[in-house]
Amino acid sequence: MSDIMIHPTAFIHYKALVTESRVGAGTKIWQFASVIRGATIGARCNIASGACIDGSDIGDDCVIAHNLAMGPGFKIGNGVFIGPNVTFCNDAWPRAGKDGFDADAYIGSPAVIVEDGASIGANAVILPGVRIGSGAMIAAGAVVRADVRAGELYMGRGEVRKISDETGRIRIRRARADESEARAFAEDHGIE
Ligand SMILES: CC(C)(COP(=O)(O)OP(=O)(O)OC[C@H]1O[C@@H](n2cnc3c(N)ncnc32)[C@H](O)[C@@H]1OP(=O)(O)O)[C@@H](O)C(=O)NCCC(=O)NCCS
Q1: How far apart are CA 31 and CA 140, in angstroms?
Q2: Domain of 180?
Q3: pLDDT value for 116
Q4: Does residue 141 line the site of ligand 1, with CB under 6 A?
Q5: Are the C-beta atoms of residues 79 and 59 closer than 8 Å to each other?
Q6: What pLDDT digit, counting tens, does each position of 151-180 carry?
Q7: Which residues contact 89 (CB under 8 A, 6 or more apart)?
Q8: Pairwise CA distance, residues 38 & 22, whole Å
Q9: Considering its fold, how many domains does the chain have in total?
Q10: Which residue, judged by its Cα, is nearest atom 43 of ligand 1?
Q11: Predicted structure pTM score
C-alpha cells in the first residue's frame, strides 16, 4: 500500500480498508472523497475531490472526477472514465422507507455494470438495471435508462450512434476569441 495517496481530508472507512474495502497500489484519493462500506478501488485510479464511493467496486486505471454519487450495487471495470457530478442510481422507485429495497440484493448481482474502457460524461445519470459496454461513450448530461452496447455513443433521450473511429478526435475546443469569429461560427452551423 506504500504508494497509495489518500488526502488527509478524504474519508476512508479504515476498519473497512483492512477488513472489507481495498484500495489498489498507486491510487490517489483527493479532498473530501469518501470510500465506505466495503467499496473496493483498483490500482492506479484517481478519485477526485468530493466523490462518494459506497459499497461498490471500481477496477484498475479508472479516473473518477469530482462529486461522483455512487451508493452500493455498482461494478465498474478497468480504464473507465467517470465525469464530474455523475450519479448512479440503485433504487428505481425511491422512498425514504426501506420496504421493498435491500441493497444487499446487489451483492454478486450489480444494479449497473460498466465495462472496461467506457466513458461517462459530466452530469450523466445512470438508472438501475443497465449495462454500459466496453469503450462506450455517454454524452454529458445524458440519462441512461437502457443498455448501451460496446463501442456505442449514447447521446441521451435514447439516441445512440456508433463510434466508428476515434483517431483524430478533437478533444480540445477553445472558445472563440471574439464576437465576429463567434458570429461566423454561428452562421456556418446555422445557429441563430
Ligand atoms: C456527446 C459527445 C461525446 C459528442 O462528441 P462529438 O461527436 O465530438 O460531438 P459534436 O460536437 O461533433 O456533436 C455531434 C452531435 O452531438 C450533439 N451533442 C453533443 N454533445 C451532446 C450532449 N452532451 N448531449 C446531447 N447531444 C449532444 C451535437 O449537438 C451534435 O448534434 P447533431 O449531429 O444533431 O448536429 C460530447 O459532446 C460530450 O458530451 N462529451 C462529454 C464531455 C464531458 O463530459 N467531459 C468530461 C468532463 S471534462
Answers
A1: 24
A2: 5-188
A3: 98
A4: yes
A5: yes
A6: 999 999 889 999 988 888 889 988 888 888
A7: 111, 125, 126, 127, 128
A8: 8
A9: 1
A10: 121
A11: 0.92
Question: How far apart are the CA of 184 and the centre of ligand 1, in A?
Answer: 20
| Cell numbers at 96, concatenated | 425514504
Q: What gap in Å lies between CA 128 and CA 136, rounded to an integer? A: 17
Average pLDDT over residues 73-81: 98
Task: Using the mean position of ligand 1's atoms as its centre, give its distance from the Cα of residue 10 in Å.
Answer: 33
Q: Is the CB of 26 under 6 A from ligand 1?
A: no
C-alpha cell at 84: 464530474
Query: Which of 87, 155, 166 gets mutated to test ligand 1 (max ligand atoms within 8 A of its CB)?
Result: 155
| Ligand 1: nearest atom to the Cα of 137 | 3
Cα separation, 138 vs 78, in Å, equals 16
pLDDT tens, residue by residue, 44-70: 999 999 999 999 999 999 999 999 999
Other Cβ atoms less than 10 A from the Cβ of 8: the count is: 5
CATH of the domain at 42: 2.160.10.10
Q: Which three cell numbers stand for residue 116?
A: 472496461
Q: Is the CB of 110 under 6 A from ligand 1?
A: no
User: Are the beta carbons of 76 and 59 closer than 8 angstroms?
Assistant: yes
Sign of CA dihedral 84, 88, 93, 95: negative
106: which DSSP letter?
A: G
* Position 103, amino acid: A
